[in-house]
Design goal:
With 241 residues, this protein is mostly helical. It has four helices and no strands.
């Protein structure tokens, strides 16, 4: 094989390697572009779904000019009903917990009272023994120990009784929760009555389906930026909900 043939063979090998590398790069680039396209499509779909939930022209800058959408999260009476229901449930749970704590304190108080009766009996016994046998130091030591235990038990009784009084005060304060619930329910009833009154006040003799379509532009209007039929229907549907 001549030198020229060897050079030609080497040149062909290098070209094949370049073509293979180029094809690989192009394939990778196509895959990246395809992935970006899918992600962009998903983002557009998500934005379109969000746009359907937001009134036309609504933005954070103009939010104070718009009423909130009539969703379950923004319906006033719906929200107040949830508040009264949840507050009543939570208050009932709190009362149950407080009642259990109160019962446990009363039980512990009875146990401590039994210990106090034992300490009093021991003190009486060791007092008599100390008088009859003054030379026995064990009687005096036991007498002092029982007196100290009696003082500690009496202090525990006072603490338990004070805790019981505090729990009773908490239960009295919690009664205001029921009063607050009744006030909210009264507000709800007034709001519902006003809503029914306004609905009755705006009733007409002609069905909306039989009415003439509203003119989008009337002679003398200073602007042509009027709401379309779709905008009006969407607004009516929103208030209807």
């Amino acid at each position: 094989m001549t030198q020229e043939e060897l050079d030609a063979l080497m040149s062909e090998g290098v070209n094949d390697m370049d073509d293979s590398s180029k094809n690989t790069d192009e394939t990778a680039q196509d895959e990246v572009e395809e992935t970006d396209e899918i992600e962009n499509t998903e983002e557009v779909e998500e934005l379109e779904e969000d746009d359907e939930k937001i009134p036309k022209g609504y933005s954070e800058e103009t939010s104070h000019h718009w009423p909130l959408p009539a969703t379950d999260e923004n319906k006033m009476v719906h929200q107040l009903d949830d508040v009264t229901k949840e507050s009543e449930e939570k208050a009932s749970e709190i009362f149950d917990i407080i009642e259990n704590i109160s019962n446990e304190l009363m039980e512990k108080e009875e146990n401590v009272q039994k210990s106090i009766d034992v300490f009093n009996a021991n003190i009486e016994l060791f007092t008599t023994l100390s008088i009859k046998f003054p030379e026995v130091e064990a009687f005096k030591t036991s007498l002092e120990q029982n007196k100290e235990a009696l003082e500690s038990a009496n202090s525990t009784i006072e603490t338990l009784q004070a805790s019981g009084d505090s729990i009773m005060s908490i239960m009295d304060i919690m009664q205001y929760q029921d009063i607050h619930r009744q006030k909210i329910e009264r507000v709800i009833n007034v709001m519902r009555a006003l809503s029914k009154y306004m609905s009755t006040l705006f009733e007409g003799k002609i069905d909306d389906e039989k009415r003439v379509a509203s003119a989008q532009h009337i002679v003398g209007d200073e602007h042509n930026d009027v709401a379309s039929t779709d905008d009006i229907e969407a607004l009516l549907a929103q208030f209807g909900n």
